[in-house]
Amino acid sequence: RSSEICSVFQYNGGSCLQGPSGVPGRDGNPGMNGIPGTPGIPGRDGLKGEKGECMRESIEESWTPNFKQCSWNALNYGIDLGKIAECTFTKMRSNSALRVLFSGSLRLKCKSACCQRWYFTFNGAECAGPLPIEAIIYLDQGSPELNSTINIHRTSSVEGLCEGINAGLVDIAIWVGTCSDYPRGDASTGWNSVSRIIIEELPK
User: Fold this and answer.
1) pLDDT at 38
2) What was the pLDDT predicted at 9?
């Protein structure tokens, strides 16, 4: 109402004083999105990068299980020195390892201290990658109160991994022999039970 009076007063040649500022109004509702602009000018090509290294993906061939078992029923082999049994195996790769296992009854008998050694050979030679695969039985000297010629047969095993053997046919054998610095006794292998050699080719 005062603004109307001031307008009339100004019209009649008078002047009005400016009143105090009003309370600021609230923010309005957000406006609608504008129209999309036109696409910009394509940029220039960047500097040429350095030559990268050629990366070749190595695809590993799948590993096919390769194993064999030779078994004997009641070998009853009483030799103290020499080859007991053998098993021929076809090795597929030169960069693989062979896991070998002999399982069978072993016995050693003697009246004084003695020692026998059971071990594997590969094509006639003991394993050198890294060490021989062997097992021993040692029997101490008895006493007059005890039976020093006790005759116990126990199922035992000789087991290990051998590396560095070329691919192809491999003659794998289990032998019995003496221990260093000890006389041999009366050995027995495979008495009254099944004996077996198990061979498995493993990736390295």
Assistant:
1) 81
2) 47
Concatenating the DSSP letter of every residue in the chain gives -HHHHHHHHHHTT---PPPPPPPPPPPPPPPPP-PPPPPPPPPPP-PPPPPPPP-----PPPPPP-EEEEEEE---B--SSEEEEEEEEEE--TTEEEEEEEEEEEEEE-SS-EEEEEEEEETTB---SSS--EEEEEE----TTS-TT----EEEEEEEEE--PPSEEEEEEEEEEEPTTS---EEEESTTSEEEEEEEEEE-
pLDDT digits (tens, 9 = 90+) for 60-118: 568 899 999 999 999 999 999 999 999 999 999 999 999 999 999 999 998 888 999 99
Q: Is the dihedral of CA 83, 87, 88, 91 positive or negative?
A: negative
Cis bond leading into 130, ω under 30°? yes
Query: Domains in the chain, start-ordered, CATH in brackets?
Result: 75-203 (2.60.120.1340)
**Token duo for residue 125:** 């030679």
Question: Rg (Cα) of the chain, in Å, rounded?
Answer: 47
**Of 135, 117, 127, nearest to 176 (Cα)?**
117
